[in-house]
Predict the structure.
Amino acid sequence: MKLGFFLRCLTGLGSMALASVGLAQIASLKATMDLHISFQELGSDASGFHTYDPFGRFSVFELNALTIQDFHIFVAQPLERVPNDPDHDSLQSYYIENPDVWRVGKQFVHFGASHILKDNVLAVRSDQVIASLGLPVSVIACDGGKNLPQGIVVNFGGNYGLSIAVGDNFGISTTSLLAVRLPSQSPGSGNGYRRVYDAWYQVNTGHYHYWAEAAALKNGNSTTALDDFVSSLGVTYYPMPRKSVTFSIAHDSNQNADFYAVSAEIGLAKNLSLGPFVRFKNGNLFDASLSLNIKI
């Protein structure tokens, strides 16, 4: 039996179970919009106004529900599709979870510190802690369908650790590898990797957040998916709530390129912030944007 068929059956059974419980079991229900309106200068046909930003944050309509059993239900509908997006699902996310224990449905797959890989796919996730070692472990089985990410992802660690992915077509989502490419530069269906190995470290100290992460992408699913090594390190300074500036450096061995980026968050009002961003590739301007984040 295909893993994707099993996951869809499991998600469907969960949905039917929720429907049978009825609205009487819903403790809270909230509909919101999280808008990321940006003007992007990309040096390509994608330049102009978009409802997503260079970090892969999409403008979405969100539905959050909490049951009296403390299960969380989440659905997100994006307002715009990214060019070359291999995922043709109209919904960005839909899942039910027992927070920090398990999650079933379409979700962003946790991989390391998520500064490099962040595939969006149908999955079942289990979060556990090895008590004798105090070691957090997450195991994720995912299957997006033919020529989309599928396989097993295991993460060992919290603020630092190792991740291993085994399967097919990892790294093709428009939200992956954004340290070294644009959301619109997904290689497309069937052009991902069968093996990924990742190591990361991150720490918060005072008003600073530091991170370092590196991933080896191996055994491509196509002749164009050559073995790659991608690294990212950076620091974010938070002088006060909702005001920050981030400096980051990334390297992509396939492109033989270094990327230097500076971004900021400037809180203008309670649910309104401005996000300037500029990035250079080997000393030349790669992309720049000015984003407005509005939460309704």
Remarks:
- The longest helix spans residues 3-21.
- The chain has one domain: 3-295.
- The helical segments are 3-21.
- The mean pLDDT is 90.
